């Protein structure tokens, strides 16, 4: 056989393979970089979209905080108004108490019992008077107990007086007044 030198042919095949490998490597690198850029853009879009959602939620939370603050202020105003209404209602009831008491006093006080003073403090009535006989005071207590707006009649003292010509016994009594519920007439 003759001497055939195959080195240049092999080198040209190697060079062609190396060139093909470099082209495939460049194409693969381009595809990889483009895929990475596309994934990066998609992630940036998702991040921006989530930031918009977060900003929207923060704005709505701030609005709700304002509304809750206003509701708290409205509740405080409501409580103050209810307190005022209760105070006005108690004043109204207190105003009617003296009229009601003096209207029913002749029915409460039996003959032979004479009242010297009548003092109203809060929902308590202090009565000081004189009587001809103890059973008349007991009769007055029974009359008070029959009323639904008066309760707890209590005699704090009763004693005989030495004055002449008629000996009257002096007594002091306390009653309690039932608080009326608004809108109920008794």
From TrEMBL:
Coiled coil: none annotated. It holds the Pfam family PilN. InterPro entries: Extracell_DNA_Util/SecSys_Comp, PilN. Keywords: Membrane, Transmembrane, Transmembrane helix. It comes from the Bacteria. The chain crosses the membrane at residues 21-43. PANTHER family: DNA UTILIZATION PROTEIN HOFN (PTHR40278), TYPE IV PILUS INNER MEMBRANE COMPONENT PILN (PTHR40278:SF2). This is PilN family type IV pilus biogenesis protein TapN. The gene is tapN.
């Amino acid at each position: 056989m003759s001497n055939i030198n195959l080195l240049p042919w092999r080198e040209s095949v190697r060079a062609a393979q190396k060139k093909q490998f470099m082209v495939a490597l460049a194409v693969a690198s381009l595809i990889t970089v483009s895929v990475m850029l596309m994934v990066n853009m998609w992630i940036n879009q998702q991040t921006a979209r989530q930031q918009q959602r977060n900003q929207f939620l923060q704005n709505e939370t701030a609005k709700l905080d304002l509304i809750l603050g206003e509701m708290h202020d409205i509740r405080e105003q409501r409580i103050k108004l209810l307190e005022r209404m209760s105070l006005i209602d108690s004043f109204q009831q207190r105003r009617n108490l003296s009229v009601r008491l003096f209207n029913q006093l002749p029915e409460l006080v039996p003959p032979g019992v004479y009242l010297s003073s009548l003092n109203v403090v809060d929902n308590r009535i202090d009565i000081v008077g004189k009587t001809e006989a103890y059973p008349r005071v007991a009769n007055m207590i029974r009359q008070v107990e029959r009323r639904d707006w008066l309760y707890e009649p209590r005699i704090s003292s009763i004693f005989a007086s030495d004055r002449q010509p008629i000996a009257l016994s002096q007594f002091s009594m306390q009653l309690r007044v039932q608080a009326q519920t608004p809108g109920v007439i008794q």
